[in-house]
């Protein structure tokens, strides 16, 4: 991995052959040809304007719902975490936040502003951009019901303001105008005393710690819950808890989590995902749909 100086007036950081294991919560996966951390939205616009139309692009926030295959990612990865990350109260009950802010920081910002509705974001270990892309949710709360406007960027660096009506939003699924990525969104929240919000966030975080293998590398829930059931229940009752391929294991604590118990490759993880889905289908006749996104090329470990 090497950092390169940019000569075109760009202010962000470009890295070549960057291991994506450093940028995904599974701590596994191959290298990106190029990885760019923009300095701010203006810098991102300048980068996208300077890239050839043919350059493949991939977007990564905190990589907490992403498996990058061992063959890596061709083209340029845009990494938003910790950059493009401001938040501001724009009205009595509205907050505009940029895509690279962590969900936890955004939840705290809203609570401190005396605004409620975003507490569920406190325990989601991703960026706000990732939450918009996934319609992240927990404990009955979801991202998109709060959204009143999104700001996106296309591959030519054009910025767009869009209304939620332009998106088809479902359970951990969002479809909108193709070839655009989120740079910011405005949330509408309710006014509520901040101590109550902070207390609710604490309770949600405690509940999460009890049910999930927090602290072990994972991507959270691998599969979506099928209508009227839970993927974890189906996997558990198929006897798959503790099942491993290489360093990838089905968590003993939460059957819908696959953990990297040490040295797992992306190939191990993907093979275990496929094995779990096949066993559940065979034993329960239910085809589990993946929540986790898989990107990149198959191949040997780089
Ligand atoms: C321990 C643990 C617990 C979790 N608990 C929950 C939970 O309770 N609820 C829940 O919903 N999820 C949960 N997750 C999954 C994950 O945190 C969420 O899906 C989160 O929203 C992903 O955000 P991210 O920034 O990490 O996205 P990434 O993993 O970086 O990316 C996910 C997808 O979003 C796309 N993307 C990222 N940023 C942008 C952008 N700015 N514009 C367009 N597309 C973008 C990526 O290209 C990719 O396809 C958990 C994960 C872990 C590891």
In the sheet with the most strands, the strands line up as 1-2-3-6-4
Uncertain runs are 1-5
Instruction: List the secondary-structure elements in sequence, H or E.
Output: EEEHEEEEEHEHEEEEEEEEHHEEEHE
Mean pLDDT: 93
Tell me about the biggest sheet? Answer: 5 strands, mixed
> Can you count the helices?
6
Q: Report helical residue fraction.
A: 10-25%
Number-wise, the strands total 21
Radius of gyration: 19 Å
**First-to-last CA distance:** 12 Å
Portion of residues in beta strands equals 25-35%
Shape: globular
> Are any ligands bound, and if so which?
flavin-adenine dinucleotide
What structural class should be given to the helix and strand makeup?
alpha+beta
Describe this structure in words.
β10 and β11 form a beta hairpin. The strands form 7 sheets. This protein has a 5-stranded mixed β-sheet with strand order 1-2-3-6-4, with no helix packed on it. The protein has a 5-stranded antiparallel β-sheet with strand order 7-8-16-12-13, sandwiched between helices. The N terminus is likely disordered. With 302 residues, it is α+β, with helices and mostly antiparallel strands. The protein has 6 helices and 21 strands. The termini are close together. Bound molecules: flavin-adenine dinucleotide. The site of flavin-adenine dinucleotide (FAD) has 31 residues, from β4, α3, β10 and β16. The site of flavin-adenine dinucleotide has 31 residues, from β4, α3, β10 and β16.
């Amino acid at each position: 991995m090497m950092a390169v100086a940019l000569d075109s007036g760009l202010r962000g950081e470009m890295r070549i052959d960057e291991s994506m294991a450093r940028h995904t919560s599974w701590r596994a996966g191959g290298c990106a040809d190029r990885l760019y951390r923009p300095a701010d939205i203006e810098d991102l616009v300048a980068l996208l304007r300077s890239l050839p139309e043919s350059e493949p692009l991939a977007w990564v926030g905190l990589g907490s719902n992403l498996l990058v295959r061992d063959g890596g990612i061709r083209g340029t990865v845009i990494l938003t975490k910790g950059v493009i990350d401001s938040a501001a109260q724009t009205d009595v009950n509205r907050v505009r936040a940029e895509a690279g802010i962590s969900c936890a920081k955004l939840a705290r910002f809203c609570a401190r502003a005396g605004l409620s509705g975003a507490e569920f974001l406190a325990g989601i270990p991703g960026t706000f951009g990732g939450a918009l892309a996934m319609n992240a949710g927990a404990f009955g709360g979801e991202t998109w019901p709060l959204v009143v406007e999104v700001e996106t960027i296309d591959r030519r660096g054009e910025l767009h303001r869009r209304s939620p009506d332009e998106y088809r939003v479902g359970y951990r699924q969002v479809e909108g105008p193709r070839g655009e990525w989120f740079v910011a969104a405005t949330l509408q929240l309710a006014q509520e005393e901040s101590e109550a919000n902070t207390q609710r966030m604490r309770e949600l975080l405690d509940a999460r710690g009890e049910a999930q293998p927090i602290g072990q590398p994972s991507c959270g829930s691998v599969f979506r819950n099928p209508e009227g059931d839970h993927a974890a229940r189906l996997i558990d009752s198929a006897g798959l808890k503790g099942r491993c391929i290489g360093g990838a294991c089905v968590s003993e604590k939460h059957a819908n989590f696959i953990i990297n118990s040490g040295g797992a490759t992306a190939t191990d993880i993907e093979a275990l995902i496929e094995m779990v889905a096949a066993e559940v289908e065979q034993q329960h006749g239910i085809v589990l749909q993946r929540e986790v996104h898989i990107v990149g090329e198959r191949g040997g470990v780089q």
